[in-house]
Amino acid sequence: MPQIEQSAIEQSSNARILTVNAEILSVGTELLLGQIVDTHAPVMARILAECGIGCTRRSTIGDNWDRLVGALQESLSRADVVVTIGGLGPTQDDLTRDAIAAALGDEMEHVAEYEQELRDLFASRGFRWTESIARQADKPKCARFVDNPHGTAPGLICQKAGKVVVALPGPKGEFDPMAKGPVRTFFEGLGGGVIHSRTLRIIGMGESHVEDLVRDLMEGENPTVAPYAHTGEVHLRVTARAQTREEAEALIEPVHQQIRSVLGDHLFGTDETTLEQSVVDLLKSQGSLVGVAESMTGGGLAARLTAVPGSSEVFRGGVVTYQLAAKVSLLGVGEATLKEHGPVSEAVAREMAEGARRVLGVDYALSITGNAGPTSDVDGKPVGLVFVGCAGPDGVEVQEQRFRGVREDIQRRASQTALSMLRTQLAAAAQKG
């Protein structure tokens, strides 16, 4: 196992494993300008966690020598491991390898054998050679190269004075194989365990309400429990540190069950299980069919359901009735209803759901009508006012909601409400037997 300063190692009170902490430093002015979205840092953070290394901070630095060296020195003052992403190419603004040497107080050296490999590669492919390409054969003396079969800039693993710096290239086709291959193998020998998380997904409660109900569990150290909000739902992340993934799962499971006993049916899934997936699973288990009638969401609810593999077994179809005439001709919404109540109303949501259930010949039908903005409707209905209907064997339920946010948020929350209503009705039907 590579040597890490003992002063930076702690013993977990619940599992005798070494705790190694890391920071990730993404390099590139294009990231700061918003021209490129940093998708590599989350991948690297997951790899670190799976190898038992805690990522305590992520930073982004532009292609500036002084700021880059300063950021590296600052990270090294806190962390055992620093991972850099980007800045390893042949151009003058690729500063990472030299900045690492400066931050570690190391000298640079040129590896002539690797330069020759690069020259042979360029010659074999008929590419034009420029002297700047040879910069990729430079490295700090304390570093070893990490092979890059998909590019010309090798990665680096640098070890000096009890610190580790790992440098990875920026292009995705080069970053992914290196990070998930030899670098991951290196980290597996460094971490001495795993950090594993399970995400519990909750509907129908706000983040503060969820936090109040599980506050005692949030005070635990291993596993830890932390809430975070998503549009229309709340997630609880339960994270355990252990020697193996199986041991971490064993620590997480009883906490998961305690949370389930507290939250009940509000807990609809774990990890990647979406609300629409849980609804489709319930429909399949009961042999029921569903259809939708949409106005404001323009087919977004149907798109969510059909994104679930195997949904064709339970989803019969949908009708997008954006204009008033379509509501009348396709769903049988009464002209008198529209005139008296307006298209954004409980009455219209009710008739849309009933019409869709009848026209599509399904057990359940969902309807959505509302104003997603950015301006009020012609009849003065405010932005965010939404009516969601759910028609089933026992009748029709309609909910009035007043959502906040931009247009996309309101549309997402409306479809969340519709799916949640259907899930509640399906759960009640299952309890009846």
Write the layout of secondary structure elements.
Elements: E1 10-11, E2 18-27, H1 29-32, H2 40-50, E3 53-61, H3 65-78, E4 81-85, H4 96-104, E5 108-110, H5 112-125, E6 138-140, E7 143-146, E8 155-160, E9 163-168, H6 172-191, E10 194-202, H7 207-213, E11 224-230, E12 233-242, H8 245-263, E13 267-270, H9 275-286, E14 290-294, H10 300-306, E15 315-320, H11 324-331, H12 335-341, H13 346-360, E16 364-370, E17 385-392, E18 395-402, H14 407-432
Parallel strand pairs: 2-3, 2-4, 4-9, 14-15, 14-16
Antiparallel strand pairs: 1-2, 5-6, 7-8, 8-9, 10-12, 10-13, 11-12, 16-17, 17-18
Helix pairs in contact: 2-6, 3-4, 9-14
Portion of residues in beta strands equals 25-35%
Count every helix, treating DSSP H or I runs of 4 or more residues as helices. 14
Largest sheet: 7 strands, mixed
Could you state the CATH homologous superfamily of the largest domain?
MoaB/Mog-like domain
Q: Any idea how many domains?
A: 3
Shape: elongated
Computed structural class: alpha/beta
Count every beta strand, where a strand is a DSSP E run of 2 or more residues.
18
CATH topology of the largest domain: Molybdenum Cofactor Biosythetic Enzyme, Chain A
Q: Please mark out the parts with pLDDT under 50 across 5 or more consecutive residues, or reply none.
A: 1-18
Name the CATH architecture of the largest domain: 3-Layer(aba) Sandwich
The end-to-end distance, rounded to whole angstroms, is 57 Å
Overall residue-averaged pLDDT value: 92
